[in-house]
Amino acid sequence: MESLEISAKLRVYSIVEYTNDKKILIEKAKNASLSAYAPYSKFHVGAAVLLANGTIITGSNQENAAYPSGLCAERTALFYANAQYPDVPVKAIAIAASTKGSFTKDVCSPCGSCRQVLVEVENRYNQPVEIIMYGEKHIYEVDSIRSLLPLSFGKENLEDNVNHE
Question: Which CATH number fits the domain that encloses residue 18?
Answer without folding.
Answer: 3.40.140.10
